[in-house]
Amino acid sequence: MGEHPTWGSADGRSVPGGARGRSSGAGPGSSAVTVEELLARQGASVGRRAARRAEEAPAAPPRHSAPPRPSTPGPAGPRLQRGLPPVPGATAPPAADPDATPDATPDARGIRRSGPVPPLPGRPAPTAGADASGVRRSTPIPPLPSRVAPPPERQRALRDHRAAQLAGRAARRATATPARRRIVRVVLALVVVLGLVALYPLGLYFYVDRSMDRVAALATDGPEILAPQLQAGSANYLVVGTRVPGEQGPASVATLLVSVAPDGSRAVLLTVPSTALVDTPQCRADGGRLRDPRTEALASALLSGGPSCLVRAVQEVSGLRIDHYLDLDLSRLPGMVDALGGVPVCVQPSAAVAAASRPLPAGSSRMTGAEASAYLRPADPRADATGVEVAQRAQLLLTATLHAAISRSTLTDPASLTRFLHRAAGALTVDDSTTLGDLRSLGSSLGALSDTVVQRAALPVAEERYVPKGSSRSYVLLDDAKTRALFDAVIGRTRVPPGMAEPQAPAPEATAPAPGKQTAAAPAPGPAQQPLTVAPGQVTVDVLNGTSTNGLAGKAAASLKAEGFGVGTVGNAPAPVSGTVVRYGPQGAEQARTLAAAVPGSVLQADPAAGAAVQLVIGPNYSSVVPVHLAPAGSAPAAPTASGASAAAPEAAAPVRC
User: Fold this and answer.
1) Which of 55, 137, 320, 380 has the most CB atoms around its CB within 10 Å?
2) Are the C-beta atoms of residues 278 and 272 closer than 8 Å to each other?
3) Domain spans of the chain, in order of start
4) Terminal CA-to-CA distance of the chain, rounded, Å?
5) Is the pTM of this model over 0.90?
6) CATH top-level class for 527-618?
C-alpha cells in the first residue's frame, strides 16, 4: 500500500507502521493534513490521484482580505481550508495580491472598516460628477408627456416678470407712508366686516333650516289625488295650527289650505272645519305602523294618527296634491310676534273677530304677543261648533306674522331676525322636503298679493252639529256637492266658484265712493251680536230633551227659572238632535233670540208650526244657562230670517280701509 506518514516525528511524519491518528506533541511547525491525504492514508488510489490534482492546482484566493489567523500550536487537529468552491457558471473573482496592503487597518478594538459597497449585479457603476460629499446632483426633470416645455426665451421672460413684480412690491412697501398703511388696514377691515354681515343671514338661514323639526308627511303619489296633470305647476300648502289657546281635543286644531297658481298671480285660501266628518284612508301613523281606514273628525286624523294621516285625509276630501306641510304651535305664536317687536295687522269686522276673547280693533293696528294670544282664545269655546272662526283668526295672525318677518325692516335688523328665527324654529314642524325658502315663498305670495287676488272661502257645511247614531260626539257634515264643486274650481283654475268666496276687504289704495253710489255692505252681525229687546220674564219656554241623558230637561228648566224665564212643558223630544236648537214661530222671533243668548251653543231654527211658542230642544253640546242683558231703550230690533240669521241693518257701516 506504500508508506503512510504518521504524526509524532520532527518533520510531522513518523516511521511506517506507526500509530494512526495519534499525535505525540506536534510542534508549531507541523503542517496541516488535507482530506485527500486522509483518503490516501486509507489506501484508495482515487485519493492519491485527487491529492496529486490538489497539489498541482493553484491555491484559491481568500474571499475576504482579513489577515490570516495564527495557527494554534499543539495537537488541535488538522486545519480546514477556508472558503467555498465557486458557483458553477459564475466568474471567479480576481486573485487578491497577498502582498497588497489592506485599505484600512483595524482600530483599537480590532474592528476593520469595510470599503465601498460594490454595485449590484446588472447595475452600472456610478458615473463621475459627484461632489465632495459623494452626492451626485440629478439632471433637470423632463416635461410631462402631454406638456410641451416652453422655450428658453419664454422661461427667461417669466423669471424676469416675476422678479419685476417682487421688486415693485418691495419698492411700494419701502415707500409707503404710515398714513397710507393705516388706510389700507381700515379698508381691509371694512371689507371683512361687510363680508361677515353679508354672510351672517345666510349662515343663520341654514342653521334655522336644519333646526326645524321634520316629519315624513307627504304622499304626492296617493291614489286619492285628482287630475295630477292640472296640478303640475301649482303649489299647495297644508297649514295646521295646533294647541289653540283655551281649546282641547279636535277643537284645538285649526286647518288651512293654501293653493298658489303656477304663475303666482293669484291664490286661494280655504278654511277646513277641524271637526268635519271625513274618511281617512290607510296611512302610515307615527311610529311606522299602518293605520286602518276609518271615518273620523279631520283633527282626529292628526291627533291619533299623525301628520301623514292628516295629509291623506285632506287629499281624500279635496283631491289636491299636498306639496308642503306646515305645523305651527299657536301657543308659541305670541313669542314670535314679540320677537318682531309687534306685527301690523288690518282687521275687518266679522263674526270670527267678534268671537275672540279680546277682539282687535277694526282697521290698522300693531298687535303685541299678549294681544295675539287673547285674539286666538275664543270667548265661548262651545260657540264655534265648526272651528272655522278660530281658523280664520289664526289665518290673519299667521299671514301678518310671515309678512312682517320677510319685510325689509326685519331683514336689515340682525337682532330681530335672529330672535324671530330661533323662536320660529322651535314652533314649526315641516315635512322632509319643505325648506325655510318654501315658507318664505308662502309668506311672500300671501303678502305681495292683494286681497282682490287672494280669494278666501270656508268649506260648505250641510249640518253643524251632527251626532251619528250610537255616538255622543257632534261633528260637522260637509255639503258633498258644493265641496266637490269648490275643489274642482281650485284644481282647474285656482279660483273659488261664484257665490262661495268670502267678502273681500277694499284695496288700500281705494278712494272714497262717489256721491250717489253705495259701497258693499259689511257682513251682518249674527243673532248673538244684535241687541236683545225682550226680557227673560216675557219668554215662556218648552224644554225638551233631545239626548239619551235622563233628567237633562228638568235640570235645564230649573236653570231657566233661576234666570227669570217662564217654563212650560218639560219632556222628551220626538227625535234626538245633534245640537241644541231654539225653535220659534213667526210671532216668537225676539223671544227666541233672548232664549238663544241665554243658552250658549244653541242654534235658532224657524218653525212655522210652533206658532207663538218657543221650544228649547237640548242637544249633546248643552252645558248651562247664562244671564242675558237687554239693549238700551230706543234700539231698533232686527227680525231674524227663516234660517235664523239676522237681516242686514239698513245703514251698515262701510268696510274698514287699511
Assistant:
1) 320
2) no
3) 216-493, 527-618
4) 146
5) no
6) alpha beta
